[in-house]
Design goal:
This protein has helices spanning about 10, 30-35, 45-60, 75-90, 95-105, 160, 165-185, 205-210, and strands at about 15, 25, 40-45, 65-70, 125-135, 190, 195-200. It is α+β, with helices and mostly antiparallel strands. Strand 6 (about 190) and strand 7 form a beta hairpin.
Length: about 220
């Protein structure tokens, strides 16, 4: 468990994540590529970056990390909420609108509004979405479900509770376990519904660790720096 006292003024400052930081760390601005965001830069808290670099030092050398998202402004969160809600409708058309809303919230947090004491995890700059890649080819590893897939196979422990696994599924389970283990070892908490999502200093981390929430919106009332 990380206590709130370890966060310094340096830890909480905003930094940009880019491809020149580490040879095994790559960045792909997923929501810019999809047209949801006008900005190709990825920002986040410095502690997210420093802990991620610490994690890379212990990660087996055949793996690297691909960052898909860290800070997410309110406008992008709103777009994504609607997109995921529509995806859930396609996957589970039998759900009522209320049931759809509950299911959607497993895979995307409600957007925050300016002045709201609630700060969505990614708005804080303390949530990160990432996956494993091959450190030589930079190809994404098979993690069993694509990023932002709002179905049960995306759940962190899906392969832990599946009654029998094929050889390929055992490899996927091992990769998920590896990612979770190394991220949690440096202070992140993992999210039960998304194998790719990890937190530090934000509302999800606070609920898991029992520590006070440290981060509000990364850029205050602004969407971008």
């Amino acid at each position: 468990m990380i206590s709130a006292e370890v966060f310094t003024s340096n830890d909480i400052e905003a930094v940009e994540f880019h491809n020149e930081i580490h040879p095994r760390l790559k960045v792909r601005p997923e929501y810019y590529d999809l047209g949801y965001s006008p900005n190709p830069q990825i920002y986040g808290r410095r502690i997210v970056l420093t802990r991620l670099l610490e994690m890379l030092e212990n990660l087996p050398s055949q793996y690297g990390i691909l960052i898909l998202d860290v800070y997410r402004p309110r406008a992008v969160q709103g777009i994504l909420f609607d997109v995921i809600r529509n995806e859930v409708r396609k996957i589970k058309p039998h759900l009522t609108e209320e049931e759809n809303y509950i299911e959607t919230r497993k895979y995307v947090s409600l957007p925050s509004v300016v002045g709201d004491p609630y700060c969505a995890p990614h708005l804080s700059g303390g949530a990160i979405d990432l996956t494993l890649i091959d450190s030589k080819t930079f190809e994404e590893c098979n993690m069993g479900a694509p990023f932002d897939d709002p179905s049960e196979i995306s759940n962190r422990d899906y392969y832990e509770i599946k009654s029998s696994l094929s050889d390929e599924e055992k490899e996927i389970k091992d990769r998920r376990d590896l990612l979770q283990h190394h991220m949690e070892a440096v202070g992140f908490t993992s999210y039960e519904y998304e194998w790719w999502h990890f937190d530090i200093g934000n509302v999800f981390w606070s609920k898991k660790t029992g520590n006070p929430e440290v981060f509000g919106p990364l850029f205050g009332d602004n969407e971008w720096p």
